[in-house]
Structures are given as C-alpha cells and as structure tokens.
Amino acid sequence: MTRSLDNNTAPTPTPWLVVAAFAAIYLVWGSTYLAIRVAIETMPPLIMLGARFGVAGLLMVLWARGRGAAPATPRQWGWAALLGLLMPAWGTGSVAWAEQYVASGLTAVLVATVPLVIVAIDAMQGRRGLNVRVVFGVLAGFGGVAFLMRPGAVGGDPSAPVAIWVLVLGTLAWSAGAVVSRSADHPGSQILATGLQMAIGGVVLVVAGLALGEGPRVELASFSMRSFVAFVYLIVFGSFIAFSAYTWLLRVTEPAKVATYAYVNPVIALFLGWSLAGETLDPQVLAAAAVILASVVLILKTPQRRRPAPEAVDTRPAAAAAVLGATITPCSSGSASTAS
After folding, report:
1. How do residues 182-199 score in pLDDT, each as one tens digit?
2. In 3D, which of 239, 218, 219 has the Cα closest to residue 230?
3. Residue 155: per-residue pLDDT
4. CB burial class (10 A; 0-12, 13-18, 19+) of residue 16?
5. Residue of 193, 183, 201 lying closest to 87 (CA atoms)
6. What is the pTM of this model?
7. For residues 32 and 28, what is the distance between their CA atoms, to the nearest angstrom?
8. Who contacts 325 (Cβ-Cβ below 8 Å, separation ≥6)?
9. Residue 229: its pLDDT value, please?
10. Cβ(256)–Cβ(58) below 8 Å
11. Which of 123-127, 139-143, 295-299, 302-306 has the lowest mean pLDDT?
C-alpha cells in the first residue's frame, strides 16, 4: 500500500494488507465502545470525546495538507461545521454520554440501527425503492429498539431509559448528517474533509461539556492510567488507523464487503463488554439485539434500487469512526453511519 489515500487511482491490493485492514475495521472499531467506557471511568465524557476528535481531526488535516491536499473553501468549511455538529458532536457525543448508564455492547447494538434510519429517510425522499424485505427489516429493527426503550428493559439504573433516548436521538442526528453529506460541498481530499468535521465536532463537544458542568472534573491527577490508555487508543487506533484502513478498503475491494463491519462491530462490542468489562445482558435484551442485528444484515444484503447520488463522506472512525463509533460508524457503501 504505497499510494496516497487521496489519490484517485486505486492501489494494487496485497492480500495480507487487505486482511489486516478488515481486522482493523472489525476489531478496532468494534472495541471503541469499550474503550469509551473505560475512558469515561475517570474522564468527563463530552470533554474526553471532544479532545479525542480534536486531536485526531487535527492530525488528519495536517496529514492531508502535508500530502498536497488543497485547502477547504469557506463554503466547504460551512458544510464541515454542519456535519461536524450532526455526526461527531451530536451523534458520537450521545454514545459517550449514554455509556455512563448503558452497557457498551448494548450501545453498539443501538448505534447499528443507523442503516435502518437512513433507509427510512431515503424512502421518504423517494431516493430508494422499498420491497417486502426492506420494509420487514426496518420494522423489525425499530421493533427491537422499541423493546429496549421500555421501562426496566436495560437494568435498574433510573438514568438508563433516558440514556436510551439520548442514543436514539444521536442515531437520528448521525443519520441526518449522512444523508445531508451526499449533497454537501466537500474538499477533494476525503481525509481533509473528515479531519475538518472531527476537529469542529471536537470543539463543539468541549464547549458542550463545559456548559454542562464537566469543567471541574478535568483534573489530570484524577485520570487513571487505564482511562488515559483508552483515550490514546481511541485517537490513534479508533480514529486514525482504522479510518485509514476503511478508506483504503473502499478503493481496493467491493463496498458491500466493507459494509459488513456495520453488523460485525456490535457483535465484537457485545463480546468485549461481556468478557472484559463484566457487562451482563439478560436473554430478552439479547433477543432484541439479535433482532436488530438481523434486520441490519437484511437491509445491507438487499440490492438497492435507487437513483444515483453522490457518495457521503464518512466521519465515523469510531467510528470510527465509528465509531467507532462511532464511535458511531459508517453503515453502508456510500453512506456514513455512527462511529464511536
């Protein structure tokens, strides 16, 4: 992999690099939900995430400019500000805040509903035709979410139902950003476009954190080493390395294969939360999660019948993305999704 990620000519894929890149978007983005949970053990969630996106976004901008990317125009800065607000700030910010009260694995499952929301928005706008499989997948997925939103479904913490609602609103914001991104004016460099959105989203998150009273909690002496390591992991692996792998894979393999991370990531997150963080999910919640993930698989595996539209820029290295995950995370070929 020797050519620039911003070069329009796709590099010749090397098999072991392809495997490593898929491992990055599967494992790294899938682990960002747990990393966020560990980071906010001693760090305020919104300021932590804002610092993560601010640093990662600045690194991406510097990298893109260093490789010859043209600077963004004022119009492109405006679009970056809107998308940074909707996706990294509102979309992924909801993940960091909600994980104070909701298990990281369950958070990843709820974030995975982004493809369902985008399909619903596309259908309402006449951009995508519907068939029985798509309608069933969307209804089943939303039914699983509705089950998780009922009182007492996710444990006895009184703040958990509120956190679920915050996640749902964050998912809607990310999905709206993904749709808006299709018609936005982006810089020619995808790395630069994503870096600007991350950096702006990071500033918004820090301001929001300060407004909500997180400032007094920013005490370096109180940050644990494991929280600090998780924070660095989110920047280096979750945002920079996994996103680079994602953009490269889109150039060297089929987008439909790359999109499989959308339903692999939640499974990884559920397993890591259970095995490493002691998160427990009762059988009913696991059943609801299975229904949601199955609906996402059904949606992504159904051939699309839609008018051609510009590709959306992914801003979820969380997601990563997602996202992670982002993270809320990218959700399908040509669309961005929530990345942690």
Report:
1. 889 999 998 899 999 999
2. 239
3. 61
4. exposed
5. 201
6. 0.82
7. 6
8. 29, 32, 33, 92, 95, 108, 111, 238, 265, 316, 317, 318, 319, 338, 339, 340
9. 97
10. no
11. 302-306
